[in-house]
Structures are given as C-alpha cells and as structure tokens.
C-alpha cells in the first residue's frame, strides 16, 4: 500500500500579492480545511492541489477585472470548490466546473448573484454540473446569460431546472414545468431562449409547454400575436381581456384525424452511433406521452422524451407500468385514434413494425431493423 501523501499546507511564495494576503489572513482556517480534505482523500497530492488553488483563485483577487475582486466569503467558497474537485480528480472531467471558475463567476451579473450566498451558490452549481453530463458547460454558460435577468440567486438556481430541460434533459421536465409558474417573466423567457419575446407573452409560453411539451412555444404563438403584445402600451396587454382568448386556445388537438398528426425526431440509437441500444428495441409499456419502456435483450430501458431531447436509461422491472395497474398513468387512446388503430397496427406490421403503443397525444412504434423509436403527436392550435 502506498504511503499517504503529506498533508498540504497553504503557502504564499511567488503568487499574486492580493491572493497571498488573503491566504496569510485565512491560513489557520484554510489549513484546517485541507486537513479535513486529506482525511477524506488520503492520496491527495500537495503539489497539484496548491498549484490549482493559485491558478483558479488568482483571477478572483484582481480588483480591475470586470467583476472586481471577490469577497472573502466567495474566495473561501471557490477555494473549497477547487480543492474538492482536485482531490476527487474531477476538475479535468467536468468542463462545466472549469467554465464556472474561469468564465461564469467572472461575469459581473453572475458574480453579483454568487456573492449573495457564495457557499450555497457554488455548491448548487457544482452539483448541477455533475448531474448533467456532456451538457454541463452549456448549462453553466446558459445560466450565466440568465443571470442578467434577475436580482435573486435563489430565483436563478430554481430556474436551473428549466435551463437544463431546455438544453435536452427530459428527466427534469416535470420539475421544470412546476417551476415555470413561479419564474418571473423576464427570467423565464431567458431560460427558454425566448428573450426576443415581450414579457407579456410569458403566460402564453408557460401555458403552451404545460399543455403540450412536444411543441415549442414558437410554433404555438404566432408572430402576429407577439407584434400585438409589443405594440400595446405597457400595462394593457396583461389584462385578462388581452390574453384570455389566446390562453384558452393554446391546447393540443388530440381529436384530430391521425393523418394530421406530425412526426417527431425518433429517439434512441445504436450503441455504435452513441446510442444505448445494442439491438433494435421493442416497446413493452407506456408511462405517459413522454415516457416509454423498451426491451432489448431481456433488459428494460426507460425512454424519456419531449421537444427538447430524449434520454434512455436502464429500468428495473418493478418500475415498469403493467397493463393491469389500477390507475395507469397513460391517458386512454382518444376516439379518433382508437378508430384508426386497427388499420394503423396492420400498416405498421406490414412495414416491419415489432411493437406499437398509443395513448392520448402519442403513438410510438419500433421497426425490426431500426434501433430508434418512431413518434407521432397531434397538431397544436396556433394562436
């Protein structure tokens, strides 16, 4: 067994004078933190750890930077963030953490929010990055763009679920839809990349996504209506009379004939092309119009999908809805589709389909020679 590395201690030789001054002032507290870190990660190497502290903390003490010098509390939060990721050897793995340190926290708007509660803010952003996988740096940059549209770090962190969903994490759809109703209009439009919309249109965006998460709000709200909202004097467009009819009309027309239903990008793919399926999948259950269950070589996969993206993950058998469930989560097939379903099933089999599932608002099928799940959804009223 390798001998434990010596406990690192803070040194101040040859580094930025302002950082050196802070390290001297905080040396007892920082050394105590390093001892705790050494206890959790015995093999941590002092050299790389202290070099990372100098590299990543130096920009935060520069007074003439765009964001100015960081407060002692933020410096301490960044110190904890850097040393933890170096000890875990994850600083090089997560591009989002590097983007947070090198770009995001140097942005004046993001810095202003981070200073409200540095420890919680840095920890929350780091935790989100670790959960999001390949999109982590895109998430950090999107959150930075949103920071200019709020004065509350808490509001920005809560809106993070919406940002992550919009960037392609469908497993956060339910959480994001819950948050939408409480997100202020200006911040909400920024989270959905609808910054060119007037804030008065925010209720329409929320309603459109809550009613149909397969269709983008831009496909629901017409440019003519947006022009009306822009042209109406401030205060008038938010009245019930101004938005009542558009809000009522934003609804999925699930009773439309099936020939009017539109295709959506197929979900899933072959492992050799970056997907998760080693063989063509077969659908075995339907949770709701955004949750499918597929079987591949006796292993069941849960497929979450909506307009922003799709994710496939292994699923235990006891988590798969069964036909005999007392309250199945999937809505029943509407009459327009029920009437067409026998012909649809025959046509699908003739085309080589291996499985087909349907509910109100979704028809999905798989083909014998395809690793992807084909999707059809009903049209949406444009207001």
List the helices and strands and how they pair.
Elements: H1 17-40, H2 46-57, H3 72-88, H4 95-102, H5 108-114, H6 118-132, H7 136-147, H8 153-166, H9 173-180, H10 185-191, H11 202-211, H12 217-220, H13 223-231, H14 240-249, E1 262-267, E2 282-288, E3 291-296, E4 299-306, E5 309-314, H15 335-350, E6 353-359, E7 362-367, E8 373-377
Antiparallel strand pairs: 1-8, 2-3, 3-4, 4-5, 6-7, 7-8
Helix pairs in contact: 1-3, 2-3, 3-6, 4-7, 6-7, 6-8, 7-8, 8-9
What labels describe this entry?
383 residues; alpha+beta; four-stranded antiparallel sheet; 15 helices; 8 strands; 45% helix
Question: What features would you describe in this structure?
Answer:
This protein has 383 residues and is an alpha+beta fold. It has a domain of 120 residues. Helix content is 45%, strand content 13%. The protein contains 15 helices and eight strands. The protein has a four-stranded antiparallel beta sheet, covered by helices on one side. Strand 6 and strand 7 form a beta hairpin. The longest helix is centred in the first third of the chain and has 24 residues.
Order of helices and strands: HHHHHHHHHHHHHHEEEEEHEEE
Please tell me how large the radius of gyration is. 26 Å
How does the major sheet shape up?
Answer: 4 strands, antiparallel
* Distance separating the two termini: 69 Å
